Each structure stands twice: as C-alpha cells, then as structure tokens.
Amino acid sequence: MQNLNDTIFALSSGGLPAGVGVVRISGPEALVVTKALVGSLPECRQAALKTIRTRNGIIIDRGLVLVFPAPASFTGEDCAELHVHGGKAVVAALLKELSEFQGCRLAEHGEFSRRALENGKMDLVEVEGLADLIAAETEMQRRLAVEHTAGGLSNLYEGWADRLTRARALVEAELDFADEEDVPGSVSDLVWADMAKLQSELSAHLAGADFGEIVRDGLKVVIAGAPNAGKSSLMNALARREVAIVTDIAGTTRDVLHVDLNIEGYAVKLYDTAGLRDTDEVIEREGIKRALKTAAEADIILSLAEIGIAPQTDFAEFTGKVFRVGTKADIHPMDTGNYDLCISAATGAGLTDLHQLLVSDLQTRSAALSLALPSRLRHRTLLMDSLQTLSQAVNSNSAGLDIRAEFLRQAAHSLGRITGKVDVEDLLDVIFSEFCIGK
C-alpha cells in the first residue's frame, strides 16, 4: 500500500550496466537523506560533483548531485538525483544504503508519476502521454505522446468542461431565480446554441479516435489469401528477414505470425495468416479460424492471389479496406485490371508501390487532423459518454430545464474522468502499473 509520507527512491535511468546510473529520491526526507550521503547540498537545480558515502564514511562513488525543493520538482515534493557510474555493484550499494534510512523505501511502479498527479503537477492524460513517450518506438508515436504530455489534449477537454459548467450555471440560474429581473428570461440563446456547437466539436474530435489509436498502437495490416499465394514470402520481404517458413506445401503456415514495421514514422503491425480454404485437417482448420478472426480485427487486409486468380474481397465481420494484390509477377505478366497492384517477393517488383499504398492510406486517415487526438479506448469511451449526454441535453427540448441541466452535469463529469479531475481512483493502479519502477 502506497504511503505518501514515505520517502521513495529508485534507479530511474534504465538497465545496467550503463555509463551513468541516475537514482531519484522523492519525499519529505529526500533532502535530509541526500545531505547525509553527500555532506553539504549543492545549490538548487545546479549539478555539483560530490563524494557519496555511507553513514559509516565508506565511499560508494563520486558523482553529480542535484536537488529540487518542493514544489518546483517533478513530483511536487522535495526531490534529489544522484548521477553515479552505472555499474551494478555501485547502484546496488547506493540503493542498499538508502533503504537503511528510516521512512525510506524502494518506489513502486509509476509511483513518482503518481505523486506528480496527486500533487497537481500533471493530470491523467499527461501521465498517460508520459507512459506512451517512454514506450514510443516511431516518430509519430513520439509526436502524439509529446502532444499529450505537453497538455494539448488536457487543455482542450478542460475548455470544453468549462463551457459545460458555465452552461449549467446559466440553466440553474433560470431555475432558481426565474422571478428576478436581472436573470434572462430564457437561456436558449445563451446556452443551447453553444452546446450544439460543442456537440459538433465533440463529434468531430471523436472521428479522429481511430487514427489516434492507430498511431499509438500501430496500423494493423493482415496478409490473407489462399494457400501458396505468397503470403509468407511477402511477410519476409517486408520484414527483410526470415520471419515465416516458406515452402511449396500448401498449409505450411498454421498460426498467425506477427512482425512490427516502421513505415514513414508510423508503427505498422503486419500479420501473416494461414491459407484460406476448405479442409478437414483439424490443425489447419484451427489456423484458418484464427486467420479469419485476425482479419476481422484488421485496419487493412492485403488479399493475395497468384496473378490470374481472383483474390478474395469479402471477409466475415471486416468493414475496413481490402487491397487486391497479385503475386508472383516474376513468372506472370502484370495484370493491372484485376488487382490494385502486382508484386514479386522474389525480385522485389511492386514492393515500393505497396509501401507507398500503405503510406497513402495513413496520410488519408490523418488528413486535416492535429495530434490532439484521443489515443486510448478509455478516452474514446468517456468521450462517447459525454457526447451522448450532451446530445440528450441539446435535443430534449420538451424536457424540463432541471433534467437538461443534469445531462450537462453528466457530460462534464465524463470529461473530468478523462483528465482525472473526478472519480478515477479505480483506474490509477492499472495506469501506473504500465510504468517502470523509477518513473
């Protein structure tokens, strides 16, 4: 159980050994503990070279020391950082010495960031953006995470929440002071036109949720088609390594294979699936079942067929884009009439066109969208809740003002849950479990 009265510490700089190991300390005794280890403290937010010793005077290491008094620190508490040589024994000795101080303990996953949230240094969207920034592997993931960490999305939601609060205040003023001369006789012109506009803004924002999730989680591209259509060969060609076994035997691929690609800064998750056909072979049938399930969850299906054979275009429960790809162009003449493009995994012909096809699709999805986008299912769900109750408030012309005011309150409450302003304690353990110990 986390205790905010504890002083916490952890290695914050990643795996060891390394050139430098950064140990972070935060809490009410952070500066006292640091002074006990290094003697006199350096000037605030200025690095100083110090000898770090145990309380028995044994030298642990020499390194840079920085202190950040509250509230001007990452966590909002007194903080310190010890930059030591990144050897396992050095860091282990320092952590052991810190654990000997009364009220000091090793931090839990994400506990530094959780304290930053609880002390008002960050909101929940910014915390999630920080987790995404640490995990980012592509340029677009980095840019999306920076937008969230910098507060772009939070500012948008808080602005909307302020408009809802003001609208609700005007509605309740008419309810409570209908007989007063200085209260407008009708709030329609003041409130409902702006709420209708906000409804449109929320709806447009939600339309970008699919792209936000694609940037964060990756574009899901499934290679599907009949046995021996060249699916595994294409997977290997795009991955530029032997991911899948390739043979002339139909049904070689039995399970779903997956590889992550970076295409023009976007994360792309590429899946190779079992050949689709009727079969009585039990294991192959299970592979086909998994192939169809994966295809149903895809953003794009590359439906492969050897040139001269019509590719499959209908997939159960799939509503996204299907690109028809003719394969083995090295042994067949190009057929531009029946396919979106033709390729040869053996010679590389058409692979540049396929790459550009995926890039163009991503650019189409992102057209006219900023990166102030919802990127998690949690965001989407709460935005949908807010939009639904706002729509009820706007469209319930025959309902009483008290009922419409309650709809506005519910809409604001859902927005508040996104940033963590209201009632999110049940979410915090899940969110902070994604973090490393030192963050």
Automatic annotation (TrEMBL):
MF (Gene Ontology): GTP binding; GTPase activity; metal ion binding
List of residues binding K(+): 228, 247, 249, 252
Any GO BP annotation: tRNA wobble uridine modification
Main location: cytoplasm
Pfam families noted in UniProt: MMR_HSR1, MnmE_helical, TrmE_N
Cofactor or coenzyme needed: K(+)
Record domain TrmE-type G: where: 218-363
Cellular location(s): Cytoplasm
Keyword presence, Magnesium: yes
Binding site for Mg(2+): 232, 253
InterPro entries the UniProt entry points to: G_TrmE, GTP-bd, GTP-bd_TrmE_N, GTPase_MnmE, MnmE_dom2, MnmE_helical, P-loop_NTPase, Small_GTP-bd
Record note on quaternary structure: Homodimer. Heterotetramer of two MnmE and two MnmG subunits.
NCBIfam families xrefs: mnmE_trmE_thdF, PRK05291.1-3, small_GTP
Name recorded for this polypeptide: tRNA modification GTPase MnmE
Organism: Rhizobium leucaenae
